[in-house]
Amino acid sequence: MASVEAARGAAAAEEKSARAGQRRAAVDERAVDQAVAYVLMAAALAVTYLVH
C-alpha cells in the first residue's frame, strides 16, 4: 500500500514539475526586460523633471 502511495506522490511531483516548466517557458524574458527598462526610464524622467 505504501508503494502505491509513493508512486502516486512521485507521479504528482513529476506532473507539477512539468507544468511549472511549461509556465516558465511561456514568459517572454525579452518583453519583461523591455518593460523594466521603460519603467526605469519613466522614473528617471520623473526624477529629472522634479529636481530641475
From TrEMBL:
Keywords: Membrane, Transmembrane, Transmembrane helix. This is Uncharacterized protein. The chain crosses the membrane at residues 35-51. Residues 1-12 have a biased composition (Low complexity). InterPro entries: AGP16/20/22/41. Residues 1-24 are annotated as: Disordered. It comes from the Eukaryota.
